[in-house]
Design a protein that fits this description.
The protein contains 11 helices and 13 strands. By secondary structure, it is an alpha/beta fold. The mean pLDDT is 94. Bound molecules: uridine 5'-triphosphate. The site of uridine 5'-triphosphate (UTP) has 21 residues, from helix 5.
């Protein structure tokens, strides 16, 4: 059975982006004019997923509205033929795929958010894509994980090397190198100190899991930060079955972090023909003033 379902946890409080996240989900922050979660949903679809569950919470209505039909807006745009391309764009968003929403009543942690999807996933392997990580690559990161899953029929975590300063913000793995970019997971530690970190390889926001992860989540107590940590459930799963870590190809933007968010906006603006020239000129001007 291959991977057709994905869970996108988007119920976190986004405290690093307060005050805007007081009333707006951080997953809806715009990368110029497209919200972050749009990129995440598109990655899932481009990876062959056709059933998406978004885990939402309080103040997250904007996510549901974004992927829903907008009859008043569509009627307004339809009146003027000049708006034809805008109308098509708005209609495309609401017809991307079937999206289901499950509420996480309290933000008890990423592990708890994933567990909310158990009844919808049932007994199938599934992907998890964090709602605030954008990864750009011709072969989507989730597709790379699914291909690895299809070879080994085991859970797979996407990992990348993180800087010393960032080690204490990630689940850090100890892995046995198997072949280019592939490791057999030996251990994973949530947010270790630099001294306790078993490597510099951090698990980022993409996973494929066998359904046994749900039983492990049921047996996971609150961990670091008082939250139900997905990392702790992965440790339990690793005691029962092999897990692989895959050093994915692609450029990742952690848009839940203010610098990561800025990098995403600048890089994506530079990719747009109508913005690139003016933006470069503006940036040269800034550099000139600073020199
Ligand atoms: P983060 O830890 O980056 O999100 O979780 P956060 O807690 O909202 O952020 P800060 O640290 O307070 O700024 C990664 C992903 O997991 C989701 C978040 O919405 C984000 O997409 N998440 C996190 C949940 O769905 N539920 C939770 O209880 C925690």
């Amino acid at each position: 059975m291959t991977v057709k379902k994905a869970v996108i946890p988007a119920a976190g409080l986004g405290t690093r982006f307060l005050p805007v996240t007081k009333s707006m989900p951080k997953e809806m922050l715009p990368i110029i004019d497209v919200p972050v979660i749009h990129y995440v949903v598109k990655e899932a679809l481009a990876s062959g997923i056709d059933d998406i569950i978004i885990i939402t919470g309080r103040s997250k209505r904007a996510i549901e509205d974004y992927f829903d039909d907008a009859p008043e807006l569509e009627m307004h745009l339809a009146k003027n033929p000049k708006n034809k391309h805008l109308l098509a764009m708005v209609q495309e968003i609401s017809s991307l795929c079937d999206i289901h929403y499950i509420r996480q009543k309290e933000p008890l942690g990423l592990g708890d958010a994933v567990l909310r999807a158990e009844k919808h996933i049932c007994d199938e392997p599934f992907a998890v894509l964090l709602g605030d990580d954008i990864i750009k690559n011709d072969t989507p990161c989730t597709r790379q994980l699914i291909d690895t899953y299809n070879r080994y029929r085991c859970s797979v975590l996407a990992v990348e090397e993180v800087s010393d300063a960032m080690v204490s913000s990630y689940g850090i793995i100890k892995g046995k190198p198997l072949e280019d970019a592939l490791y057999l997971l030996e251990d994973i530690v949530e947010k270790p100190t630099i001294e306790d970190a078993p490597s510099r390889m951090g698990a980022i926001g993409r996973y494929v899991f066998t359904p046994e992860i749900f039983d492990c989540l049921h047996h996971t107590n609150r961990g670091v930060g008082g939250e139900i940590q997905l990392t702790d459930a992965i440790r339990l799963l690793n005691a029962r079955q092999n897990i692989y870590a895959y050093e994915f190809s692609g450029r990742r933007y952690d848009t839940g972090d203010r610098m990561g968010y800025l990098e995403a906006i600048i890089d994506m603006a530079l990719e747009q023909d109508d913005l690139r020239g003016e933006l470069l000129e503006y940036m040269r001007g800034i550099v000139g003033r600073l020199e």
